[in-house]
Design goal:
Layout: H1 6-15, H2 22-45, H3 74-78, E1 84-85, E2 88-89
Helix pairs in contact: 1-2
Subunit structure: Heterotrimer of A, B and C subunits.
GO molecular function, one term: glutaminyl-tRNA synthase (glutamine-hydrolyzing) activity
Family: Belongs to the GatC family.
Length: 99
């Protein structure tokens, strides 16, 4: 079993700015030890002839081709807007800042 000490977990928590109780530190040390054990098992099985992968199945691009189709004009899109300003939708300020 991988040994990750409680002081190491406390140090990691401080670095991550996570406030943990004594009980949480103990529990996290055991859980991180289990994770490290699992990683060690995988590393022991994987040989040099196995390429690193990010996905178990090959990925393929499934996007459709761009096709120009008729759409709303700016005036039609803005026609139902509750407020319009300078040809754009006017929305309430949410961050308290001026543009």
């Amino acid at each position: 079993m991988s040994d990750i000490s409680r002081p190491e977990v406390a140090h990691l928590a401080r670095l991550a700015r996570i406030d943990m109780t004594e009980e949480e530190l103990d529990r996290m040390a055991a859980q991180l030890g289990a994770v490290l054990d699992a990683v060690e098992q995988v590393a022991a099985v994987v040989g040099d002839d196995v390429p690193a992968t990010s996905h178990p199945m090959p990925l393929r691009n499934v996007t459709r081709p761009d096709v120009v189709v008729p759409s709303l004009t700016a005036e039609e899109a803005l026609a139902a807007a509750p407020e319009v300003e300078d040809g754009r939708f006017r929305v309430p300020m949410i961050l308290g800042e001026e543009a």
